[in-house]
Amino acid sequence: MNKTKKELLKEAWEDQEKAWEKTQKARQEAWEAWEAWKKAWKAWEAQKARQEDWEKAQKKGKYKKVKQIKNRENRIIKNINHQISRKLVNETK
């Protein structure tokens, strides 16, 4: 089967486009995974940053402050978990 030069170039171009799309998809997935890890890391840092304040307030008997810190942490964690789960749901669609 003899293919013309034009047909061969067209096939090569299509193969190159497929490879490019595959690479772009892999990059996008890697980026989204990185974003999820950044959010998880941010949550962990938030918890560590407030742990010292928590301990000080607890020792001093400032239970209202302890409750405020706990509520703030819970809101941050809840928000981050929501963002991660939304990304997962959107990926499965």
What does the secondary structure layout of this molecule look like, with pairings?
Elements: H1 5-60, H2 63-92
Helix pairs in contact: 1-2
Task: Describe the protein in words.
This protein has a domain at 49-93. By secondary structure, it is mostly helical. The mean pLDDT is 83. Helix 1 (5-60) runs antiparallel to helix 2 (63-92). 92% of the residues lie in helices and 0% in strands.
Number of strands: 0
Low-confidence stretches: none
**Largest sheet at a glance?**
none
Strand percentage lies at under 5%
The level of helicity is over 70%
Mean pLDDT: 83
Shape: rod-shaped
* Helix/strand order: HH
- How far apart lie the N and C ends? 42 Å
- Estimated structural class: mainly alpha
Q: What's the number of helices? A: 2
- Write down the Rg: 25 Å
Key phrases:
single chain, 93 residues, mainly alpha, 2 helices, 92% helix, rod-shaped
Structure at a glance:
92% of the residues lie in helices and 0% in strands. With 93 residues, it is an all-alpha fold. Helix 1 packs antiparallel against helix 2.
